[in-house]
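Entry 12.
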Amino acid sequence: MSSDCVRIDCGRVPFFWIEGAAPYRVTLQFRVGRADEPLPAAGVTHLCEHIALTRFQNAPYRFNGRVELNRTVFSCEGNADETRQFLEETCRQLQTLPVDRLEHEKRILRTEAAGRPKGLVDAMLFGRFGAKSFGLSVFPEFGMWTVDGDALRRWAARWFTRGNAAGWVVGPEPLRIELPLPAGDRMPPPALSALPATFPAVGRFAPRLVAAAAAVPRSIAARLALDVMTGKLQQALRFEMGSAYHVLPVGIPLTADTAWLSLTSDLSDSRMKETVHRFVTVLHDVATGGPFEEELAPCRRPGPRFATRIGPSRPSGFASSPTRSSPALSIRSHPGSTSSSTASSRCPRGRRGALRGADSTRSRFLAGHMNGSCWTSEG
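Predicted 3D structure (tokens):
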């Protein structure tokens, strides 16, 4: 079975197919998310996604949708006819969103939001970018009160177009699909406009958590850096100190060239200061010492020749991710960007040479050369 990623066009929308066993797994994404929304209408993209999928509430196959910081994703798993029908019907729904039950659907999403706590990832993004673009995820979805049917359809018409879409297919054969989407432009992500600040920086937050974050260049080195730092923190805080349960890595692609990396750990009530100190010490040691062969060995796993998603699932009640999905770092550039490299997801061999990028990423993560910050509940 080939692991090559092959580009196909589906109704003039670029799709990327990789051969795999049945059932088919398909994904259609649009370059729009929370970071694109005006604050008074925050959540309007979530409302579009939710209403578009109400058509499938009794579907016999698995499907889902989610809104991240800078993209909206629709996915499905089933046979060829089911996945084709899901993609085509989703596109039709997005073009003529049924708004007769809009207020009913708003109430559902307000109830969902009430049970979705915010966390340090959202707080750190807000601390960096403020009440705009990538800092908006910390705020409630005000659009669940303010957006009407006309505004919803205008938003959908602007963003859900074939020029602003791309997709993936994993299955026995490429799917031939004609997606009924209107023409439109590919929308660039919001500009990286950070608040003025001096870094490294430290902030405080309410829950018993400690976290560090930084903006770094998107690369395989960044992926390896996050992997290795997660393993070392888990070993130190949970297995050696017994003062933490879980270390959560999050990698969020912000633009074609920049990603946001963060590491968050819970804290024991009785050993908060010691755990925070050990957390920072581990990052310092990794940044100054570099990766070792035994730390990189678990990363050497074969995979398809496009970037993989990484990071364990978030335990219930843990620091939330603004992506509304499992924490992940998509290393490969956006399919429509000018820097769309397709590097192998295998870990490079040896400690030097290709691994210097991972050395550099970790050093920047801690030292603040890439505007790093550390947030904690403990002063």
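Annotation: The first strand starts at residue 6 and ends at 10. The chain has ten helices and eleven strands.
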